[in-house]
Amino acid sequence: MKILVGLSGGVDSAVTALLLKQQGFDVIGATMTIWGNHKIKTAPLNKNACYSPDEKEDIEEAKKIADSIGIPYYVFDCHEDYEKIVLDNFKTEYLKGRTPNPCIWCNSQIKFKVLPYIAKKNGVEFDKFATGHYARVIFENGEYYLKKGIADKKDQSYFLYRLTQEQLKDIILPLGTYNKEEIREIARENNIPSAEKHDSQDFYSGDYNELLEIQDKEGNIVDTSGKILGRHKGIWNYTVGQRKGIGIAASEPLYVIKLNAETNEVIVGTLDKTFKKHLTAVNINWINKDKNLSDKKITAKIRSTQIPVPAHIELNENNIEVEFEDYQKSIAIGQSVVFYNNDTVLGGGIIDSVY
Fold first, then answer.
1. Which of 28-42, 194-208, 259-273 is the most confident on average?
2. Highest mean pLDDT range out of 54-63, 123-132, 295-304?
3. Angle at Cα 277 formed by Cα 348 and Cα 236, nearest 5°?
């Protein structure tokens, strides 16, 4: 069996390729370029960000990895699709005062869709596509199921909830049964060049004003009663739940509660104002056919690093209403809520309102 592995230049994808080759598969490495021709004046703060003008360095590292493992390697230009699908969505959402998650769209629409398509279009033959995500794909009862990685602290199933049956049937995720230190140790033992490389932490770490291609748009920072506390230069410079960098002196720490694009206001409040129990989600993706949730113990998470918590959900024609058993801190509109039944990912959607 021939397997195409998406190589990022990091240790996870490198060990993915290594493990598959050791298991006897015919392995091919591939990296997608997504940067395009942006003229960014301010250097990004973190070179390990996914979207960065430094991707040439990642490609060089990925090539070294492929050479060290002894596999063929290709680079495919995906920047036009990335800009249309991921970057345009990112810009639109941020300018509406929402907080999108570009990684989720990139995984479902670019990494697991466009990249394999372009590879085949360019004559690269393969049977399965593999990445270094910490999650598992299981085939049971005629369907494919997406499962959490066994190491909770590294589990990345949250980022994959928009994958479909058609995609899952062609995917291999070898790292789902490992933890991070085991992967680094395998890399060290096999002299993988990226064994000590830091993980990618951010989508983009530069100046959002340049990335959004927009000028400053000044407005008011107000409290929950509407009292003006200060000024801002653009609501996209803030995220719900943010505490540092607001620039307002107060007797208690203030947090960003809401971003109002219509009034161009950043609404802030004290810690107690950040907690909510209800949300509605739209643009839902269910991974499996069974939508009967009454017999399932449902948990949900509103950010990738959260442990799934008990929740009750009500399915409507165009959305899902979610009520958490306990109050949740800083639920951000535009982010994703992902539903689980034990270690199985049921699906999820985009948070559209919070109350």
1. 259-273
2. 123-132
3. 70
C-beta atoms surrounding 33 within 10 Å: 15
Answer yes or no: do 259 and 281 share one domain.
Answer: no
**Are residues 201 and 48 in contact, defined by beta-carbon separation less than 8 angstroms?**
yes
124 dihedral zone (left: phi>0; alpha: psi -120 to 50; beta): beta
For residue 208, tell me if it sits in a domain. Answer: no
Question: For 102-136, what is each residue's pLDDT tens digit?
Answer: 999 999 999 999 999 999 999 999 999 999 999 99
| Tally of domains in the chain | 3
Spell out the residues 6+ positions from residue 322 whose beta carbon is closer than 8 angstroms to its own.
278, 279, 280, 281, 300, 311, 312, 313, 337
Q: Is residue 75 part of a domain?
A: yes
Identify whether the C-beta of residue 323 lies closer than 8 Å to the C-beta of residue 278. Answer: yes
- pLDDT, one tens digit per residue, over 201-253 is 678 877 777 788 888 999 999 999 999 999 999 999 999 999 999 999 999 99
Mean pLDDT taken over the chain: 93
Return the structure tokens found at 296: 């399932």
Q: How far, rounded to the nearest angstrom, does the alpha carbon of residue 297 sit from its chain's CA centroid?
A: 25
What is the b/e burial string over 201-226, where b = at least 16 CB atoms within 10 angstroms of the residue's CB? Answer: ebbbbbeebebbeeeeeebbbbbeee
Are both 113 and 11 inside the same structural domain? Answer: yes
Are residues 258 and 279 located together in one domain of the fold?
Answer: no
Residue 151 lies in a domain: no
Q: Which domain holds residue 123?
A: 2-133+173-189
> Does 219 share its domain with 328?
no
Of 267, 293, 308, which closes a domain?
267
